Amino acid sequence: MTDPRHANLQRDPTAAEAHGHIRSYVRRAGRVTEAQQRALETLWPRFGVAYTESALDFPALFERDAPTILEIGFGMGGATADIAARHPENNYIGVEIHPPGVGNLLKLIGEQQLHNLRLIQHDAVEVLRDMIPLGSLAGVHIYFPDPWHKKRHNKRRLIQPAFVANLCRYLGKDGYLHCATDWEEYAVQMLEVLSAEPSLYNTAEGYAQRPEWRPLTKFEQRGLRLGHGVWDLLFRKR
Questions:
Q1: Report field, pTM of the whole predicted structure over 0.90
Q2: Residue ranges of region Interaction with RNA (predicted)?
Q3: Which H or E run includes 52?
């Protein structure tokens, strides 16, 4: 049986609808610190991956063959670095649009000598469409995406039926999708959308316990102390 990580190393031509997708983020300039700028200049050539319309060859990219997990929207990258450090047996690809976050995670990569992590600074929908081979991912992490809490903005949320259906095509058999949010109304929508996707099944009865691989962020710890909720959802590909 062909290993799906080595299969279909061509751009997927069927996802043309992504050209007109609603962006789930706002481009913010943000301030890049001197340390982040140094990391961008010195470490991007080694750990950064330029956006291209050619599918990636994961074993060539990481110089080894290992399960590859994609994180969409890693923010400032603290949790991403922690996960990669705890699980050196996996390869990780982080996708983020904002330069300060990319620079900060590159800084952490350098400080912690993380060789199993690569970064792409580009829109995640387009990265999936053009760079990720079908059936190639062991998992996908989507942690605390923008909840777009105003009702008129709900359509900009990332977790929507069409996006999830498309995303599942890039998961290998038994690959997992792990989402987390601290916005209850969005958690309800996530559960409804993921439960309705026929190619996924829920690993829990409703919301899941936080898996050991997802560290608590400082923001999350503060919220929990104040009594705010956090909801994890862990689904797998059938």
A1: no
A2: 152-157
A3: none
CATH number at residue 192: 3.40.50.150
Residue (of 195, 70, 203) closest to 135 by Cα position: 70
The domain total for the chain is 1
Show binding-site residues for substrate: 150, 182, 217-220
Q: Summarize pLDDT for 151-199 with one digit per residue, the tens.
A: 765 787 999 999 999 999 999 999 999 999 999 999 999 999 999 999 9
pLDDT, block means (10 residues), the chain with 238 residues:
33 41 60 95 98 97 98 96 98 97 98 98 97 98 87 80 97 97 94 98 97 87 84 97
Range of the domain at 142: 4-9+31-237
Catalytic entry in 3, 65, 146, 232: 146
- Of 96, 70, 73, 98, the closest CA to residue 84 belongs to 70
* Binding site, annotated residues: 71, 96, 123, 146, 150, 182, 217-220
Active site (annotated) includes residue 146: yes
Return the H-helix or E-strand segment holding 61: helix 58-62
DSSP 217: P
